[in-house]
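name: query_chain
kind: protein
chains: 1
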Amino acid sequence: MTEIICITDKHHPALPAIIQWLYDWWGKDEDYTKEQVEAYVRNAVCKDRIPQVFLILQDGVPAGTFQFAMSDIDTRPDCYPWLRDFWIEPAFRGKGLTYTLMEAVKDHAARLHLTELYLFTRHEGLYEKFGWEYIETFPTHLTPEDKQRLYRLSICKN
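structure:
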């Protein structure tokens, strides 16, 4: 059974796992300390507004995370709000979890009265399957050569 929890406690017992996932995924490569990633995650814990941190549990086991935020990349202040840090642990990939999570993203975004979300990624062909519209490939300036794909998702109002 899949359960998606909006974390509202900055001391939630799953936060260390989320912090470690993000630190291992992008924190080290982008020269962040683990303490910086921890502050980034804990300060994104809000209840009724953005930013928000979500935990994905599969049969009670932490399986992934995602966040809603007002910003994600400094070079695109024209785009907001964002779906960021969409992460599924490798052991849970390839089992259809992404579909369930994308439905949860849409539901939670609608509850917050969001009309659209943005994300950027190197993946091509994945997010289109879930209704995301490809906008453009843009230079992120994270490294001199880095270019990533920008997507937008329109949120249907309930």
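note: The two ends are 25 Å apart (CA to CA).
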